[in-house]
Amino acid sequence: MADLSALLLLGALSLLGVILYLAIHYSVRPGAKPGGIDDPLRRAFLRYSVLASLVLVLGHAWVGVEEMFRSLTRQIKLEPVYVANLRELEPGSAVSFMMPVDPDMLPADHPCILIRLTPEEAQRAGRELVAYSARCTHLGCIVEYLETDGREIYCPCHAGIFDPLTGNPISGPPKRPLPEVQLRVEEDGSIYAVGWVGQGEQGE
Ligand code: FES
């Protein structure tokens, strides 16, 4: 998104430069020598050119540095995060934990939620455990798992509701699903968070 806005900015500046050049080229003040050293239009154009060049250079540098930073951070080797033991987690209950990176794989203490689905839910979902970012995709409040009859992931800020089986929004302002955490369950029941779905498994 940042790349797109930078490209749009650079494109707009280039277009503005062309328009300004054409305007100066085809409009000559009465009595003034077009393009002469004392021509205020020429001076304005030169000033604009210097400024536009500076912005273009900074824009390119910004895009490059951001891309480099992202490619570096994507290579972070995420150690598996112990979350809970399956034997201690009742069906229809949840536990909170922290991921050391956010869904873009940038370093951050990112709150998450692990849910052990009820047997009926697990049958529908085809899996027993699910884990998501606990940051609401509307404005970033922390969501909570309501262990009521109609179990749901609820955001207290604006009453957004997400489906615990998929993380998809089902009512309220949120429009995007909660980013999903990739899990691994060991033979002894230990549950580890090993990355973000869509980012590939980062742990060993
Ligand atoms: S921040 Fe969650 S619904 Fe608005």
Textual characterization of the structure:
This protein is of the alpha+beta class and 204 residues long. It contains three helices and ten strands, in the order H-H-E-E-E-H-E-E-E-E-E-E-E. The chain folds into two domains: 2-74; 81-196, 3-layer Sandwich (Rieske Iron-sulfur Protein), CATH 2.102.10. It has helices spanning 2-26, 40-74, 119-125, and strands at 81-85, 93-101, 107-116, 129-133, 144-146, 152-155, 160-162, 169-171, 181-185, 190-196. It has a four-stranded antiparallel sheet with strand order 5-6-7-8, with no helix packed on it. Strands 1-10-9 form a three-stranded antiparallel sheet, with no helix packed on it. A three-stranded antiparallel sheet has the order 2-3-4, with no helix packed on it. Helix 1 packs antiparallel against helix 2 (40-74). The radius of gyration is 27 Å and the shape is elongated. Residues 136, 138-139, 141, 155, 157-158, 160, 172-174 line the site of FE2/S2 (inorganic) cluster.
From the 3D structure, determine the CATH topology of the largest domain: Rieske Iron-sulfur Protein
Number of domains: 2
Bound molecules: FE2/S2 (inorganic) cluster
Distance from first to last alpha carbon? 31 Å
How would you characterize the largest beta sheet? 4 strands, antiparallel
Poorly predicted regions = none
Q: What coarse outline follows from CA principal-axis ratios?
A: elongated
Number of helices: 3
Residues in β-strands, percent: 25-35%
Oligomer: single chain
Sequence of strands across the biggest β-sheet: 5-6-7-8
Class derived from helix and strand content: alpha+beta
CATH superfamily of the largest domain: Rieske [2Fe-2S] iron-sulphur domain
Strand segment tally = 10
Helix-strand topology string: HHEEEHEEEEEEE
| Helical residues, percent | 25-40%
What is the name of the CATH architecture of the largest domain?
Answer: 3-layer Sandwich
**CATH class bucket of the largest domain:** Mainly Beta
> Gyration radius, to the nearest Å?
27 Å
